[in-house]
Automatic annotation (TrEMBL):
This is 6-phospho-beta-glucosidase. Belongs to the glycosyl hydrolase 1 family. GO terms for molecular function: 6-phospho-beta-glucosidase activity. It comes from Allocoprobacillus halotolerans. Transmembrane segments: none annotated. It is an enzyme of class 3 (hydrolase). The keyword tRNA processing does not apply. The active site is at E378 (nucleophile). PROSITE patterns: GLYCOSYL_HYDROL_F1_1 (PS00572), GLYCOSYL_HYDROL_F1_2 (PS00653).
Amino acid sequence: MFKGKRKEELKNVKKRFFWGGATAANQFEGAYLEGGKGLSIADVERGARHGVRRQIDENIQEGVLYPSHNASDFYHHYKEDIALMAQMGFKCYRMSIAWTRIFPNGDDEKPCEEGLQFYDDVFDELHKYGIEPVVTLHHYEMPLALVKKYDSWRNRKLVDFAVKYAKVVFERYKNKVKYWLTFNEINALFINPRPWHQAGIIYRYDENEADVKLQVAHHQLLASALTVIEGHKINPDFQIGCMLIYPLTYAYTCKPSDQVLTREKMLKTYYFGDVHVRGKYTNTCRSYAQMINGHFTMEKGDEDILKEGTVDFLAFSYYFSQVESDEPLMEVVGNIAKGGRNPYLEITAWDWQIDPIGLRISLNNLYDRYQKPLFIVENGMGAIDKFENGTVHDDYRIDYLQKHLTEMKKAVDIDKVDLMGYTMWGCIDLVSAGTGEMRKRYGFVYVDRDDEGKGTLKRYPKDSFYWYKHVIETNGESL
């Protein structure tokens, strides 16, 4: 029998804990046609204003701002940016490889050497400072040519293209990268009514949306499983994980019907977690497919692939929570997901509900369900920063992070959740995926660029830069 008093004083997280930050190529890299890179689905998304949906163009239009084209220009500033990460003491940096830098059209016979060399240089620079790369293979940036030529992930051929891409980068970087993620926020396919970001899909008027998204999900889950299988063949020491949005949802009241609706809301997330971790379509998956009256086809051998290709760990993004009820509620939107307004929570300038305790709850929910190591690879606060006298005084960001990290530590020390690390989203200012804005800033470092694409691109540490540096130095003791 276990004995001991429950205590609230917190120890440090484990010694080998990955403190760091996270970005995505299409929001940070820029240089959208340099180095042999092809067009991605992000490259035809126009910029927008606060609260306005981004427009998707079939082709690049003259005189239109496409935020991913230049973004924060990491492509030309990577040495400076990595030096800033090292100054903060980063143990890891979560980043993505742009598929279109390796295979510009997705179905090319041979990879682009210039693109491969760019990431070689980035990884070498990270290792120079002892920073571990954590690399996402698919982060909202699939080749546009695959949408036009093959109808995107509706077509099973994309499984082969994705696995070929994964094998090329695994072979190339097998001695430089150990930690990998397959698809970023893969469950966005079910959460977002327009899953362009995640899968290059715009539903047609003549097709059954439920069937399409289940079939697309199956193809991506197959690609993920095969990626895990091939990765472990290339280097058995690889640690390959999946990555989910975790839109924590509470029942609005204690009515039993609200509890049922809350469970149903989370099916969209657990559908993908179950297949990645358990290697099969569970009762949860079947329940969701039946609920939306959707169907998909599997080929012989698919079940064996899913069973063999389970992930080593589960990564997730956490920004907010929401409530669910059978009564009408005021609706808020956070990171694609929509839900009811919780009157007990504050909100950001973009109406994302701030719920630090929800991070502890989320960690427990996921660890209790899957018993796999977890990794918080996105968390943070988009805000309008006031740049003055060469810096930003962002006490609001420090307060947000301090409260979330405190709850994270409670989950580790008190609740005994196995947590690998924490990477704050947008550690250096980048373009918002949802709106294309630069003014929605997350970073510890201010980048001089505005919503019109103007600015010097000069980097300036914010107050939070020095605060996070101290957090890492003390391994979280200074919270």
